[in-house]
Write a structure and sequence with these properties.
By secondary structure, this protein is α/β, with parallel strands linked by helices. The protein is 38% helix and 13% strand. The chain has an eight-stranded mixed β-sheet. The protein has a four-stranded parallel β-sheet with strand order 4-3-5-6, sandwiched between helices. The longest helix is centred in the middle third of the chain and has 20 residues. It is globular and about 80 Å long.
């Protein structure tokens, strides 16, 4: 093998190579003031790009002095109508733009595409959901770089939005802050006399299918589950990502738990403009904050809060973008040592708006820093450490029961388990809170795609008198395509009260899913993973104590079955999903599109 004579810096630069942009060196002063428009000045100063300046005057720049001196900040809201998670983000963006102008900067609003997971759940639209994460990242990277923005403030709402925004930050690496759109208020069904939320709709549907409630009951749940704007209100994927990203120091304190409709959310938008100026002045860039240490905080918080399995997929993608070596084994390492403390939905009692009333995430982080579970010394977008950000937060009241004390956890170790075995040689992700037990052994019942299982459920055919493992395959990143979430199946089983059933898939489950569920099985069936040759009646063992998932089939028999197996045709050959299928990697590496 030839000797590699490249210098270390050259090898590092070849790890991920992005387009380089001319910029004024940090620390340069003009007329005695620190230059903050280090990137935009390329087109706003001098006479090299008169056409660009003409366009910017037309877009709203008021004077030659503003053109030449003021930093330009992109305000990227993941806004669109028709989804409560995102429908209010344009207004938040307007507040940010006003704040930027008051603080001597120029704000340019733009938005990205998005997909509503609740609207697309268990229909063909869900196949577009995961790829939206990467399109969001592409959109923000594209506009930030092409328009020569000096900084960015991103405003996401739904769950793929958050990692997409952070991935974009790691790519363009210009001073950036994320403002989470905030959680929705909890709903209430007068007819059933109980609190309801988006997850209740799917579980109530299961209860209807198995004759436990009436259509009028379901109608009432649907009508009152989502009372206004905001992200889904339990510790589902959106709030999982938001709380973790706050623990990484990429948002202002409290962003993840400030409700969407609260006046405090508007105040946060104004405070973010002050913070982005600090980032510009101190040259605080995303890659200064997206580190192994901050990811450690993110994983710890996810375990403490009972967060979504989707966090594994998204953290891996975010770390890949930032050239960090996070692996699925890191999640198991953290899960082994960190307890599950938060009594939040989907498997618990409370909503994130309830958490906000006892101090929100700053109080939780203050508690975790004091307990030496979270690193309070990491830098943040405020220019202060995470510990300093949380110092003024109220301490958690010992009388509250949303966050359990360390002496009385819901589970002594994390609920997210990384499983391996002859069904998942490359890994799988389980969400096991302990309420459903820690070991499940049952006969496999295999479905080639989620629609086949849904049809079986709708016909009332799933009434097992023995432990059964329902397997849904060909729903991975390539096979799905798009690795669709399968909340409907898990919620129907919960609503129907079927407790002797486990679910496994090479697709994903929603952050709102709970029960004995295993997803992200690698290799996926479409590429010839062992899941492709699992048969009805095979005995499947899921063990959250030994972290194993296996079938009672010998290696020789698996090899024999795979020899006669033939991959099904890809479901799409043109369009955006076809591009996705040909680029996407496996779930154990974040299902990213640029792992070349």
């Amino acid at each position: 093998m030839a000797e590699d004579n490249r210098q270390p810096q050259q090898q590092e630069n070849e790890k991920s190579r992005f387009l380089e942009f001319r910029s004024i060196p940090y620390g340069t002063k003009r007329d005695g003031e620190l230059v903050l428009n280090r990137y935009s000045s390329l087109v706003t100063n001098g006479y090299e790009f008169p056409g660009a300046q003409a366009m910017l005057y037309a877009a709203g720049i008021k004077s030659q002095e503003d053109m030449r001196k003021k930093p330009q900040v992109g305000v990227a809201s993941v806004w669109w109508e028709g989804n409560p998670c995102n429908m209010h983000l344009l207004d938040l963006g307007k507040a940010v733009k006003e704040g930027l102008e008051k603080n001597g900067m120029i704000g340019w609003q733009f938005n990205t595409i998005g997909v509503s997971d609740a609207i697309t759940m268990s229909n063909q639209g869900m196949r577009f959901s995961l790829q939206s994460r990467d399109i969001i990242a592409d959109s923000i990277e594209t506009t930030t770089c092409a328009q020569h923005h000096d900084a960015n403030i991103s405003i996401p709402g739904c769950d793929k939005n958050m990692p997409g925004c952070i991935m974009a930050m790691a790519r363009h690496n210009r001073p950036s802050i994320m403002i989470y759109g905030g959680s929705i208020k909890g709903g209430y069904s007068e007819r059933l006399r109980q609190p309801v939320n988006i997850s209740s709709c799917f579980e109530a549907h299961g209860a209807l299918m198995y004759g436990k409630i009436s259509e009028a009951d379901l109608d009432d749940v649907v009508r009152h589950a989502c009372p206004g704007p905001g992200g889904c209100g339990g510790m589902y994927t959106a709030n999982t990502m938001a709380t973790a990203i706050e623990a990484m120091g990429l948002t202002l304190p409290g962003s993840s738990t400030t409700p969407a409709e609260s006046p405090a959310k508007m105040r946060e938008c104004l405070r973010a403009t002050e913070a982005i100026k600090v980032c510009l002045e101190k040259d605080i860039k995303p890659r200064d904050l997206i580190t192994r240490e901050s990811f450690e905080n993110a994983m710890v918080v996810t375990m403490i809060m009972g967060g979504s399995t989707n966090a594994v997929l998204h953290f891996l993608a975010m770390s890949h973008t930032a050239d960090l070596d996070l692996t699925i084994d890191d999640f198991q390492r953290v899960s082994d040592k960190i307890p599950y403390l938060a009594d939040l939905k989907p498997s618990g009692k409370y909503m994130v708006t309830d958490l906000a009333e006892i101090g929100g995430m700053p109080s939780v982080l203050k508690f975790l820093i004091h307990a030496n579970l979270v690193n309070g010394d990491i830098p943040t977008v405020t220019g202060k450490t995470l510990r300093e950000n949380c110092e003024s937060a109220p301490s958690l009241d010992p009388g509250q029961d949303i966050i359990r004390p360390l002496s009385n956890p819901i589970k002594s170790s994390g609920h997210i388990r990384i499983l391996k075995g002859n069904l998942a040689p490359g890994g799988a992700v389980a969400k096991i809170t302990g309420k459903e037990g820690k070991v499940f052994v049952g006969k496999a019942r295999v479905y080639d795609g989620e629609p086949a299982l849904i049809a079986s459920l709708e016909r009332g055919e799933i009434r097992p008198d023995e432990n059964t493992v329902l397997c849904v395959r060909y729903e991975g990143p390539k096979g799905g395509p798009g690795m669709p979430e399968q909340l409907k199946t898990s919620a129907v089983l919960m609503g129907a009260g079927l407790r002797n059933v486990a679910l496994i898939t090479d697709g994903r489950y929603s952050g709102a899913s709970h029960g004995f569920i295993v997803g992200h099985i690698v290799p996926e069936a479409q590429v010839g993973g062992p899941l492709a040759v699992l048969k009805d009646g095979d005995i499947v063992t899921i063990n959250a104590e030994t972290n194993q998932i296996s079938m009672n089939v010998s290696d020789e028999e698996i090899a024999s079955r795979l020899k006669s197996w033939k991959a099904p045709c890809l479901k799409v050959t043109r369009g955006t999903l076809a591009k996705y299928v040909h680029l996407v990697g496996d779930a154990s590496h974040g299902a990213v599109l640029d792992m070349f």
